[in-house]
User: Fold this.
Amino acid sequence: MTEAKNKQILYLAPEIPALSATFVYNEIFKLKELGYQVSAATVHQPMAKVDDATKNKVGDVFFVYQASVLQNLIHLFMVLLTKPVNCFKSFTWLCKDLFSIGLFSRNAAGLVYRYLSAANLARFISKKQITHTHVHFAHIPTDIAMYAACMTGTDFSVTSHANDIFQRGWLLKEKIQRSKFFVTISQFNKAYLAGLAPQIKEKINVIYCGVDTTKFTYRTSHENKVFTFGFLARLVEKKGVEYLIKACNELKKDQYNFNVEIVGDGPLTDELKALTSELGLTTHISFLGTMPNNQVSEWLKKLDAFVLPSVKDSNGDMDGIPVSLMEAMASGVPVISTDLSGIKELVINQQTGFLAESANEQDLADKMKLLLTTEPALLNKLTEQAEKHVKQNFNQLANAEKIGQLIVKDVVKH
Assistant:
């Protein structure tokens, strides 16, 4: 096992590090703590700034899209010279995939570009003597890693989440078949993926994204003069913030005394602020903007409840199991979410939290009223059960080790 851990593993994601996908680099940290040799690569240059401590822990990150098309063509020529059989095999994969998605489809040109970019990654894999690449998100980064692994004769594996399955799920069957193993973050997702190709069901593993239970710890006490709900996510349609604001309007009509703190930013920020103003809720709802990750834990502990009313958006995208819910539950904060996708595996209605019907502001308001009027002793019982559920099933270290064991199991064969 120790020898296998010394093999070089590469982690690839759309952005590393990124504020909205902290679970990726946190998984890297945990694998390093467990003794695995892990390098990181990012498809895109990260847009958001992270603190220096995080940058230092991640280390140097290889930027795949830094190369021009001409440079990628040179990389591909070098791969052809050094590994002609593998290069030809990767090209046959590309041809099959183009026919599968449609030669003249919107995604075809992008797939060709990602194939060329894979040559850049393949050169990095060879230079660093990477034996296994693990990818987060089954769309663009998996396209690149899949072809790069084929070019180099190495293995790759995938963790799929939500958007990459339900909205941008091209070539999923092929990716599952070609991978050494394929992970998804909920039983809900596994059932969907298995339905695409029942014969490859055994390759699909469920490993939940986790939370650092040493960082997000159960609070001992808190005190607010006014009952305060918290929300933390990007301000995009699938997070359901519109329904939260409308639910708050129902609470205001019934003369409840409450506050809501909305943490996050995104394309809907101005629209949501306008809705808040239109409904006369500016004294109840505060938009706090983005928050550094190292401040989230303390902020959560000050809340009376956490609300994340996820919905399926107009493009079919929806959440998997949001990590922010895990963080709140680990912190001893009562949570409300919706009966969507894999959320039900984390928030078990009236056992570890409350579930409202998705895209239903009245039901969401009813659940918020329930929290406002529930006896503290009953809430304490609920939050204790929630914390236990997170520690047992959504522990970041334990779940990172599961990924590591799957990688080692395959790496050790080489």
Remarks:
- The CA atoms of residues 262 and 287 lie 5 Å apart.
- DSSP finds 18 helices and 13 strands in the chain.
- The mean pLDDT is 93.
